[in-house]
């Protein structure tokens, strides 16, 4: 299993995603991001999500996480829907952390949000069910204590 960098070490591990004028670096995006196709149906705002962008350094790991969740659910879409994992909430997104001047892990393409309506920011409960948490934990992904929708391939 890969030992993910700390958040402070994200630049060294994932590269610097900052462009020249405070926005994202187009060159970094091209070099760093890949499209991951989830093994089950996902949707965002009612639209299907056939793939999403994630950093190449953690894409295979996230693919294994999603495959493990798929299997744990018996490859049953209704179960995946009930678990909340089919509701995409965002992956790569160049932005700052809330109330902070530091970049979100989403800006490095190493974070995934799932079912934000069900697991809103600022709350420690509810949490995803045990099979989902185990699949992420087995790959070293961190679920934030007060942002349960959020999983990241970076240590706190
Ligand atoms: Zn997030």
Helix content: 25-40%
Domains counted in the coordinates: how many? 1
Give the strand line-up of the largest sheet.
5-6-8-7
Radius of gyration: 15 Å
The main sheet comes to: 4 strands, antiparallel
Heteromolecules bound: zinc ion
Q: What CATH first level would be assigned?
A: Alpha Beta
Q: What would the keywords be for this entry?
A:
single chain, 156 residues, alpha+beta, Muramoyl-pentapeptide Carboxypeptidase, domain 2, four-stranded antiparallel sheet, two-stranded antiparallel sheet, 5 helices, 18% strand, binds zinc ion
What is the topology?
Elements: H1 10-14, H2 26-32, E1 33-36, E2 43-44, E3 47-48, E4 52-55, H3 56-72, H4 77-83, E5 88-90, E6 111-114, H5 130-138, E7 142-144, E8 147-152
Antiparallel strand pairs: 1-4, 2-3, 5-6, 6-8, 7-8
Helix pairs in contact: 3-5
The protein binds zinc ion (ZN).
Notes on the structure:
With 156 residues, this protein is α+β, with helices and mostly antiparallel strands. The protein has one domain (7-152): Muramoyl-pentapeptide Carboxypeptidase, domain 2. Helices cover 29% and strands 18% of the residues. The protein is built from five helices and eight strands, in the order H-H-E-E-E-E-H-H-E-E-H-E-E. The strands form three sheets. Strands 5-6-8-7 form a four-stranded antiparallel sheet, covered by helices on one side. Strand 7 and strand 8 form a beta hairpin. Helix 3 runs antiparallel to helix 5. The two termini are 17 Å apart. The model has no long low-confidence stretch (mean pLDDT 96). The protein binds zinc ion (ZN). Zinc ion binds at residues 106, 111, 113, 150.
